[in-house]
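Re: fe (iii) ion structure - here you go.
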Amino acid sequence: MKENSFILKGNICYSDTKDRFISVDQGYLVCCQGISQGVYSVLPEEYQNLPITDYGDHLIIPGMTDLHLHAPQYPFRGLGMDLELLDWLEAHTFPEESHYQDLEYAEKAYRIFTEDLKASATTRAVIFGTIHTPATILLMEKLEAAGLKTYVGRVNMDQNCTDLLKEKNADASLADTAEWLKKTVNQYQNTKPILTPRFAPTCSEPLLKGLGKLQKEYQVPVQSHLSENLSEIAWVKELFPWSSCYGDVYHQCGLFGGEAKTIMAHCVHSCDIEVEMMREKGVYVAHCPQSNINLSSGIAPIRRYLEEGIPVGLGSDIAGGANLSMFRHMADAIGVSKLYWRLVDQEKKPLTMEEVFYLATKGGGSFFGKAGSFEKGYELDALVMDDHGIHTTRDLNTKERLERYIYLAGEGGRIIGKYVAGVKI
Ligand code: GUN
Ligand code: FE
């Protein structure tokens, strides 16, 4: 029998476009060598010999992608949520991240992080580490062993931060990054490196330009933060007076889409020039609604980004967001979009349950290629979910059960099976 070839049976849901939610009750999801062959209500003859796992009445959905989170911030999730971004970085984030100089600490913290991520609904993630190469490699090894598909970034920062996290200068930061890339670029099956300038304020121009060169040389993707907070945007204007907007700083340095596949987290306050640049360059927006609430950042105009064809996925932004549950981030994405519609722009109608389901699965998954859907040809990431612990007197259809799972996962929802690229983990 072919490896990673099997059939999952159950109540199956997935999207092919953001407006098309598909559900097949008691359907057959066929996987051949890790790749989906589609979903069928009657099993085609050619697949009759594959082994079937019958999950009965349970829900089966694609794995979720967390497009933006900080592994080293996991220890202080849920703490220090009384500050805005720049003060929160100084007071909570930088002190925690400085601990990852100590590999023993990193071992403990990254073990907890990886175990919890493995147990969550996330099958793929794009992750910030710290400036510390050994700790970042340790994180990559743990994620590789967990079987999750991830991009992991060794962070660059050479100015405007505590001395404990400030790299000596741009040249030293670039040399260390090149060393790290050499060690990791073809090292793993599941884990890949991604260039990670923390954000423009903590990166000098020579550092950003040097990272742009490394991007070309190693053909690796890029992640950073963009237009999250109003004070941050004003600061970028002061630091880089030649830029037409915040995003232009990255753009002028070769770190903003096009050949350099890029994720920018937040984009809460992007101006028209920046939005146009994102669209033209195919820059992904990692929408992190819970973080934007916790750090009082604002509400990102996701409806606009979708209308303009900008690729969007969801991010937890741990520890700006307090938890890993992508279900919670889906519910928050709907919630903040309603406030945006009510308070900011009545032309921008709220996101629907189908749309956020798409964002959490195929929207973010597309950063990895064909992932996040059960359409034929997609890498098969699947979650099997038991919702019997979420009590009700009602007789619900499959879509209603999924909707309730999104809102009430923490009340008794259980993930009882998790597959990544056709491998049960
Ligand atoms: N901008 C720069 N660094 C960070 C970070 O760690 N978290 C968030 N939310 N925004 C940032
Ligand atoms: Fe972040």
